[in-house]
Amino acid sequence: MEEIEQSSGERQPNARRVTRNTLTKYERARLIGARAVQLAHGAPMAEIDRKGAVDPLELARIELLEKKIPFIIRRYLPDGSFEDWKLSELDDAKTDFDARR
Fold first, then answer.
1. Domain for residue 100, yes or no?
2. Per residue in 45-60, pLDDT tens?
3. Judging by DSSP bridges, how do beta strands 91-92 and 22-23 pair with one another?
4. Could you tell me if residue 11 is inside a domain?
5. Coil, helix or strand for 75?
6. Cβ neighbours of residue 49 under 8 Å, at least 6 residues apart?
7. What is the CATH number of the domain that holds 28?
8. What pLDDT score was predicted for residue 100?
9. DSSP letter (8 states) at residue 34
10. Which terminus of the chain is less hemmed in, N or C, by CB atoms within 10 Å?
11. Inside any domain, residue 98
């Protein structure tokens, strides 16, 4: 995603989050794309069952399915504040996305 840097907004404490804990299709696409680029450029892989895959895009999908992508999702709110979510905290409403490609 993007490097976490000081933002003009204020971080919402975990107890006061207002967004849902569901990964959106846009976040899913961005996670897979960004992670695939990292893997293609030689970034270390998470401990996953590769299932014979060598394609960076497929490896990124597997990492997402197993929730092992090392990213934090930052969601900006209309008031300028933001929420940070770990991938392990989010539910993926479409766990069958791998089979639907």
1. no
2. 887 777 777 889 998 9
3. parallel
4. no
5. strand
6. 62, 66
7. 3.90.940.10
8. 46
9. H
10. C
11. no
4 or 34: which leads in pLDDT: 34
pLDDT 10s digits, 8-63: 677 777 778 899 999 999 999 999 999 999 999 998 888 777 777 788 999 899 88
51: nearest Cα among 41, 40, 43, 63: 63
User: Is residue 97 in a domain?
Assistant: no
Largest CA distance in the chain: 46
Q: Tell me the pLDDT tens digit for each residue of 83-100.
A: 999 988 888 766 545 444
Domain extent for 70 = 20-92
14-48 burial, b for 16+ CB within 10 Å, e for fewer? eeeeeeeeebeeebbeebbeebbebbeeeeebeee
Q: Shortest CA distance to 85 belongs to which of 34, 19, 36, 39?
A: 19
Amino acid 38 reads Q
- Count structural domains, the chain: 1
